[in-house]
Write a structure and sequence with these properties.
Residues 24-144 form the Cyclic nucleotide-binding domain. This is Thioredoxin reductase. It comes from Methylobacterium planeticum. By secondary structure, the protein is of the alpha/beta class. It is 26% helix and 25% strand. The chain folds into 4 domains: 17-124, Sandwich (Jelly Rolls), CATH 2.60.120; 156-228, Glutaredoxin (3-Layer(aba) Sandwich); 241-352 and 482-553, FAD/NAD(P)-binding domain; 361-476, FAD/NAD(P)-binding domain. The protein contains 14 helices and 26 strands. Strands 10, 11, 12, 13, 14, 15 and 26 form a 7-stranded mixed beta sheet that branches. The N and C termini lie far apart (54 Å).
Length: 558
């Protein structure tokens, strides 16, 4: 087994896949090989035989019995490069084997090679029927995807200005969907100039996505990009699902995991990427079972794979535009004109941060004003002073995370302090950090700059004074508005637009606290009226609601 970017072994992070070679590319023993072989058929491949190709959907799983399978990366020039070779006892594949997305790499036999070929259906039976093998495979696939992302193998090149709105939008979409990519910043990267010349591009064309085998994409929408990269599921409009989960935040993913694991035909529809608002959190430290914390994106990524392991379908970049509840089965309408028939619906669309009422605010959204503080945003403002607006846990987590790389974090809250809205462990960290300053009874009153934000003015309501500073990054995390516009009057909302649950239309108590006023439609997580806005509670609601779905689908179940 060899590799140049993944297995160099020199100066590598001990937490990286490169330091966990035995887990990333495990070698199964004779007893496991014998069990795995029962799920497929043995074949002998001649030298150079292709076993799968980049862009293919539904690739098979190959276990090498004798010989080698070379894994190839296709660069944007079209050239192929061997970066991993699997030998006896090792297997091919990564996370695309758990879904029906296009695969990122190609594979071919090297020399006469004897393999066990397992189809997608057989692979699904293998990972559920042989849990010890399934654990080895799943761990390897997750580590392999991390390795692809770190080395940009199997990905695309994003060419654009690193601080511009659309470049950031595209990069954020790729990052949150765990798609390997390399950013060439046209403002600072010398390679970007050569790339512009090579492809005959001007700065007016940017941002541009360059990928092998597809036309160059000039400033694509998220939906166009997802289709071009094969990130979307192909939806059969004649397929009636038992349950459709709208939204892939913690609550929606939990509902999908439990519904699929209990045999319900499940699809999850998500407009952006798995994780929801929680997916933008740099680290969640009070989630049960993770004493050192876990990022929202990592938690969502694991939950997504878990749901797909049990057979749930995940349709990413498929925004739901409406719900037809006039007949059964229900029908979800999608923005691309397609629809999904389903016997039950789980509304898990969460909530979005509110915006500030400041002149020029919309102009700087995505170009200085952000709603997430991940590693991507932290890199943009490294060494600079930043502002975090908000007094909840999300704001506190963002401030602590950013303080590691920025010059200083200014937290602005309109209240007298943080005690009423933020967990104590975050308050203590903020108070003890020399790089964080808390400004109470303060609010932003002015924003200025050219194309990107350059200066911010805020008022001190206690003293009546104001202050203007050279700041180019503001993280807004205030309050939340529910994502319920698409529900088309199918159920009752509360005065703030959140979904009312636990009561039937006539006011009588519903059979489930997550039942809405329309039978067969349920709501969980932040979108639900009266819910506790915490990841753990969202996961709990998503798991518990499945019992009520079973009762609705089969009234004979007690």
């Amino acid at each position: 087994m060899t590799s140049d970017p993944l297995l160099s072994g020199q100066g590598i992070d001990p937490s990286a896949p490169e330091a966990r070679v035995a887990q990333t590319f495990p070698r199964l023993g004779p007893e496991m090989i014998e069990r795995v072989a029962r799920y497929g058929t043995e074949e002998t491949l001649s030298d150079g035989t292709p076993v799968f190709s980049r862009g293919q959907r539904g690739a098979d799983f190959f276990l090498v019995l004798q010989g080698r399978i070379e894994i190839l990366d296709q660069e944007h020039t079209g050239a192929l490069r061997i970066f991993v070779t699997h030998s006896e006892g090792q297997f091919t594949g990564e996370l695309t084997l758990f879904n029906n997305r296009e695969i990122l790499v190609s594979g071919r036999a090297s020399g006469e090679t004897r393999v066990v070929r397992i189809t997608r259906d057989g692979f699904q039976r293998l990972v559920t029927g042989e849990p010890d093998v399934g654990e080895i495979v799943m761990r390897a696939f997750i580590l392999r995807r991390v390795g692809l992302i770190r080395s940009s193998v199997g990905g695309v090149v994003l060419l654009g200005s690193g601080h511009r709105r659309d470049t950031l939008r595209i990069e954020r979409f790729l990052v949150r969907n765990a798609y390997p990519h390399r950013l060439l910043d046209a403002d600072v990267d010398p390679d970007a100039i050569g790339c512009l010349s090579h492809f005959g591009l001007s700065r007016e064309d940017l941002p541009v996505v360059i990928a092998p085998g597809i036309a160059m994409l000039r400033n694509p929408t998220n939906a166009v990009l997802a289709d071009a990269l094969g990130l979307t599921e192909e939806i059969d409009p004649s397929q009636v699902y038992d349950v459709a989960v709208v939204g892939a935040g913690p609550a929606g993913l939990a509902a999908a995991v439990y519904a699929a694991s209990e045999g319900l035909k499940t699809i999850v529809v998500e407009g952006m990427a798995p994780g929801g608002q929680a997916g933008t959190s740099s680290k969640i430290e009070n989630y049960l079972g993770f004493p050192t914390g876990i990022s929202g994106q990592a938690l969502a990524g694991r939950a997504q794979v878990q749901a797909q392991k049990f057979g749930a379908r995940l349709a990413v970049s498929r925004m739901v535009s409406g719900l037809d509840c006039s007949e059964r089965p229900f029908r979800l309408r999608l923005e691309d004109g397609s629809s999904i028939p389903t016997r039950a619906v789980v509304v898990a669309t969460g909530a979005r941060y509110r915006k500030l009422d400041v002149p020029g605010y919309e102009h700087f959204e995505g170009q200085g004003i952000y709603y997430a503080a991940t590693a991507m945003e932290a890199n943009l403002c490294a060494g600079e002073a930043v502002i975090v607006v908000g007094g909840g846990n999300s704001a506190g987590q963002a401030a602590v995370f950013l303080s590691r790389t920025v010059a200083h974090v200014h937290i602005l809250v309109r209240a007298e302090g943080l005690a009423a809205t933020m967990s104590d462990y975050l308050i203590q960290r903020i108070a003890s950090s020399p790089r964080i300053s808390l400004h109470v009874r303060a609010e932003i009153t002015g924003l200025s700059g050219d194309d990107v934000l350059q200066e911010v003015t805020w008022a001190d309501r206690a003293t009546g004074g104001s202050e203007t500073r050279r700041i180019s990054s503001v993280f807004v995390m205030i309050g939340a508005d529910p994502n319920t516009e698409w529900l088309d009057g199918c159920l009752t909302l509360d005065a703030r637009g959140f979904v009312a649950t636990g009561r039937a239309e006539d006011g009588a108590a519903a059979a489930s606290p997550y039942a809405t006023t329309t039978d067969g439609i349920f709501a969980v997580g932040d979108v639900r009226s009266g819910s506790v806005k915490r990841v753990a509670s969202g996961v709990g609601e998503g798991s518990v609601v499945v019992q009520a779905i079973h009762r609705f689908l089969d009234p004979g179940i007690v």
